[in-house]
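pasting for the record
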Amino acid sequence: MSRKRRNFAKLGCLTLWLPLMPGRHPCNTYETAHRHSVAREMAMTAASTVWQHERYAGHNLTIAKVVADHDVPHTTLSARLRGRRSISAFNRMKAHFTNAEETQIIHWMLWNADCGHLVNLRALHRYADKLLKELHSPDCPPLGPNWVARFHA
């Protein structure tokens, strides 16, 4: 087997879509980063909730004390308390599709692969554009030319 072939994820028909760096396993890199991200977000939510409840109860609790107790960045916590959204929440607002809709696209790709049909970039782009117009509105702007590259990245 060629070296190039070994560097692709072992995900059935999605091997064409997910090139990897040599020696990296997709589950280890993505799942680890996702776990850390979720843990940081949970700590930030807990810290902001504690601060808000303590302030509402009339206690004189400082942000520095909450930061020390929950091990979260001071600037991030103070920004969240002023109403700033997290980067992931901000980016979710810019997404064309929800997670459920993206899962539907992936199931469509897997179904086509099971039927023996090749899913190329153009077919994926057409299906996603059709799905976007069906689910959101017929007059929404079409997906950009780089949408497929960002979808599988």
